[in-house]
Design a protein that fits this description.
Number of helices: 5
Largest sheet: none
Shape: globular
Order of helices and strands: HHHHH
Strand content: under 5%
Number of strands: 0
Distance between the termini: 9 Å
Oligomer: single chain
Mean pLDDT: 90
Radius of gyration: 15 Å
Length: 129
């Protein structure tokens, strides 16, 4: 994958996941409603949401910092991690929609975003090898 495509993928990921992470840290209940249309959550859910938000902010910062990196091995490792995250997130969100019937206004767009970035990441990994 050329530098411009890698930079664009990592920039997109950093911005989208950074915004999601910030939303989870600041107001997890609002994100729960938008994604899953749930009005009541267990009392520990906001705490877990904030921890997940912190992890997303860390991934976003790593992706932002690696956009122009020349270290091939480090870049490939980050791409594998980002791609795995996107694929697993897509799977969990799809399970939420199809099995748990928890569907908010942003759930299907989130599933499509994670599917697209999973495929883009796989292409980037394949080209990097």
């Amino acid at each position: 994958m050329n530098t411009a495509h890698r930079r664009m993928l990592l920039t997109l990921f950093a911005i989208a996941e950074g915004a999601t992470g910030l939303g989870l840290v600041v107001a997890p209940s609002i994100l729960f409603v938008l994604l899953f249309e749930t009005k009541q959550v267990a009392s520990e859910a906001p705490l877990v949401g904030r921890i997940c938000g912190a992890a997303l902010l860390a991934l976003a910062a790593a992706s932002w910092g690696a956009r122009g990196a020349e270290d091939r091995q480090g870049r490939l490792g980050l791409l594998v991690g980002v791609t795995l995250y996107n694929f697993l997130t897509m799977a969990v969100l799809t399970y939420s929609a199809l099995v748990l019937q928890m569907v908010g206004i942003l759930l299907w767009p989130a599933i499509l975003y994670h599917a697209a970035t999973s495929l883009w990441g796989l292409l980037a990994i394949w080209r990097a090898q």
